[in-house]
Amino acid sequence: MASKMRLTAAERGAEVLEAAVQAFGASGYEGTKTDEIARLAGVSQPYVIRLFGTKQQLFLAAVQSVCDRIEQIFREAAEESPQLSTLGHNYERLLAEPELLLVLLHGFSASRDPAIGDAVRERFGRIYSLVRELTGASPTETREFLATGMLLTVMSAMQVIGPDAAGLPWAEELRSTLGDAK
Q: Which residues form a coiled coil (predicted)?
């Protein structure tokens, strides 16, 4: 029987963070318990707290991780072509990872908490600035791009687009109007 390789603290922390993104995406900030995250990660609940401090700090780390991934996808798209249409086309990559979009939505809805709200507003502002910087888009063009992205995010959360799409005619019609940003 082969023994399981021992993970470093950083590797274990990354696993816990990945489990947190899955759990917070499924149940939101209020609906997720740290023991559920621990179970998903295969560690103890006290270990999760030792790594991240509090549930709030773990949620903030999950939001930061999700925003980092969104920024990475946009940067990679801009390397292909620094156009809003290229960034929009690469939004498909985000739709293929629906837990990312769900954590972002949960971050928006938990923003009444001052610490969460400050972090979410700062990261959304960074995404806005990054899109402008990468593409040279005007504020209006960037707003339209982000508004389309938010519509896609909400539609993904409702499971009317994306890997588990319900295939509803109105959703397909609405999505078809989005052009390259779909």
A: none
What pLDDT digit, counting tens, does each position of 61-79 carry? 999 999 999 999 999 999 9
Specify the number of domains making up the chain: 1
Domain-located, residue 144: yes
State if pTM tops 0.85. yes
Structural tokens at position 30 = 């209020």
Residues 6+ positions from 110 with CB-CB distance below 8 Å: 28, 29, 30, 59, 116, 117, 120
- Domain holding 169, by residue range, is 56-181
**Residue 152 and residue 175: Cα distance in Å, rounded?**
8
Whether 10 is covered by a domain: the verdict is no
The tokens for 62 are 């999950």
CA distances from 78 to 62, 82, 83, 133 (A): 24, 4, 7, 10
Q: Tell me, yes or no, whether 31 lies in a domain.
A: no
> Positive or negative CA dihedral for 93, 96, 102, 105?
positive
Tokens matching residue 91: 């939004």
